[in-house]
Specification:
With about 270 residues, the chain is an alpha+beta fold. Helices cover about 45% and strands about 20% of the residues. InterPro entries: AraC-bd (IPR003313), Homeodomain-like_sf (IPR009057), HTH-like (IPR037923), HTH_AraC (IPR018060), Tscrpt_reg_AraC-type_HTH (IPR020449).
């Protein structure tokens, strides 16, 4: 065994519920721990109690540490590994969430593109889920877990919002512009000219405060939106590409496969 820890199971009582949380638990990871889902049929919400690990969602890699929350969206490639160099064992509480409405909730609270939120003061809510799992009835937990899930999402959204308010004025302008351009073709040179910076300066400022390049930030948001449309609508690949600002559907399909490991058509078949 490359991990230990309690697992609590709550069978689905109502098949019509848009969101269910059938499993929660704690992972105490050995240095060799690794878990891979490709693509994942569920969303994972986790809080790191100790140590540091490695998380990959599609092509992006992160290193969540003690006090961080990580979100692994359904429909994405997930890889979770312990960090052998960590000075203490990687330990985290996790909730497994089923149902595509989990993505709708994350999108509504502007967390759909968030993978790691550092120093997130929500550990008490995760701990509450574990404590209740040990003391409450299975019937109670069916509803209580939904309440805890929503509390966590709201808290994370508020933390994210407050931190964005601390962004420097130039980066705030860049982010607002990029967010509004998500469904249109985007050209860094055009934005740089409008804001009075060079393209190099623009990317440096953005990466220093957001943690990623403008292109990667925008692409992650586009791919997340594409996944939602593939799972939730009957739009064709051409229509989805057009809505995301890509005039060449073949180029969009190649980009989608590069980020997710699947062609859009295969992704849709997997999640229908």
């Amino acid at each position: 065994m490359d991990k230990t820890g309690p697992i609590y199971h709550f069978p689905k009582a109502d098949a019509d519920l848009p969101i269910t949380i059938p499993f929660i638990g704690i992972n105490y990871c050995l240095p060799t721990y690794r878990n891979e889902r490709k693509p994942a049929q569920l969303t994972v919400l986790a809080y790191v109690l100790a140590g540091q690990g490695n998380v990959r969602v599609d092509m992006s890699a992160y290193q969540p540490k003690q006090g961080d929350v990580f979100i692994l969206r359904s429909g994405s490639y997930h890889e979770v590994m312990a960090d052998p160099a960590s000075t203490e064992p990687w330990t985290y509480i996790w909730f497994n969430i089923e149902g595509s409405w989990a993505l709708n909730v994350l999108e509504a609270y502007r967390l759909l593109s968030t993978v790691v939120l550092s120093d997130a003061a929500v550990g008490h809510l995760f701990q509450q889920g574990i404590e209740w799992a040990e003391t409450r009835t299975m019937e109670d937990m069916q509803s209580e877990l939904h309440i805890i899930f929503m509390k966590i999402v709201v808290h994370l959204s508020l933390i994210r919002q407050k931190r964005q308010e601390l962004l420097s004025p130039p980066v705030q302008k860049i982010k607002e512009y990029v967010d509004n351009q998500m469904l249109k073709p985007f050209y860094t040179d055009q934005l740089a000219a409008e804001l009075g910076f060079s393209s190099k300066q623009l990317n440096r400022y953005f990466k220093n405060e957001i943690g990623t390049t403008i292109y990667s930030y925008l692409l992650d948001k586009k791919i997340a939106s594409a996944k939602m449309m593939l799972m939730e609508t009957g739009l064709t690949i051409n229509q989805i590409a057009d809505r995301l600002g890509y005039t060449d559907a073949h180029y969009f399909s190649n980009l989608f496969q590069k980020k997710t490991g699947l062609r859009p058509s295969v992704f849709r078949q997997t999640f229908q």
